[in-house]
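Structural prep section.
Before we set up the soaks we want a predicted structure of the protein with cytidine-5'-triphosphate in place, mainly to decide which crystallisation condition to try first. Input record follows.
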Amino acid sequence: MLAEKKITVGITGGIAVFKAAQLVSSLKAGGFEVNVIMTRSAQEFVKPITFQVLSGNSVRTELFDPMRGVVQHIELATHPDLIVIAPATANVLGKVANGIADDLLTTVIMAASCPVLFCPAMNVNMYNNAVVQRNIATLRELGYEFVEPGTGRLACGVAGRGRLADLELIIEKIKSLVSPCRDMEGLTVMVTAGPTVEPIDPVRYITNRSTGKMGYAVAGAAAGRGAKTLLISGPTVLKPPDGVELINVETAAQMYEAVMKRYPDVDIVVKTAAVADYRPKDASSQKLKKHEGPLSLALVRNPDILAELGGKKNKQVLVGFAAETSDLEKNSLQKVTGKNLDFLVANDITQAGAGFGSDTNIVKFVYPDGAVKQMPLMDKTVLARRILDEALALRRKRE
Ligand code: CTP
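Run finished without errors. Recording the tokens verbatim:
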């Protein structure tokens, strides 16, 4: 199937160009038809001949190439199933985010009708620069795909975030974009996402920092794989993924109702929601007025939705999430066994690149028998797929 898939690899000028050679070679060996476009700066690092040999196709470098005709960028933009920019420099991200098309690669990206995947690689300070981060956020919002860089020793000698992501992660993402598999058809997946909000009065509420990104990524991945997908979401600013049934809730009590109602018909539950453990005892129907001295707010426990699902579990696979700031494995093991889960995605939110609001996560899968699988830093969309792979394998064992 992959033999029919055409990938254009755009190579921009960073030291990670040498890793792009391995990427092109692996894609070719994996059965893809690979075409390469190099920018001028990329050619300062490696000559086009390297990529010509590895891809088996001539490498394009010039926008105005009389030998190939003047509209080659349109042909190059409509031909592939996916365009991958690896490495993607701060410069190319900035150009595309701001509508600049001044060379062959950026012109092809501008005219592309297929998904475009950026794999940034650059110095840590460049990567953290607010302008670069703003451009990445803009591109993500516009629907461009990303495999975020990894952390480690960079070519400039410093350690930090900025090295090209592991090729394995890039190839996994490429495969998911070009040949979405439908291996969850016939299954129903329920995902809870976002925070809950617990009213104090008509104006104020208690909530938490969850943005819903992880849950929306899981729901999108499940729907993409053919599962009937219910997304029960607290308030977020995110656009719901295509193909999911969205049920909006605000409080933990409303989430509880919605989850319990649908639970009997569900095969897999992924509970990413950050449910408030407590709510104000008596939410006031009138706005509270300030007065002299401190104010005490009495809180009462909310139901633990996941623990109740665990108690009622029969065929369902239950996946929980936990955000921890200390004793990650010990606390996670207690939760996975205490709530009768199949596994728990444990997240040390003190680590850079993990936790709320970030597009990436660093987690461990913790199992009831005490086994622990450490996952590398990865994009939440890639992690979403790993979680579903694991849940699906457990579900199949239960058939
Ligand atoms: N959860 C739930 N209902 C609650 C609280 C949590 O369903 N009232 C779920 C969450 O969706 C998540 C998991 O349970 O999947 C988190 O477990 P929990 O023990 O609540 O984790 P923390 O909130 O991190 O626990 P603690 O505050 O005790 O550390």
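Observations: The pocket of cytidine-5'-triphosphate is lined by residues 192, 252, 271, 273, 275, 277, 302, 304-306, 320-323, 335 (CB under 6 Å).
Flagged for discussion at group meeting.
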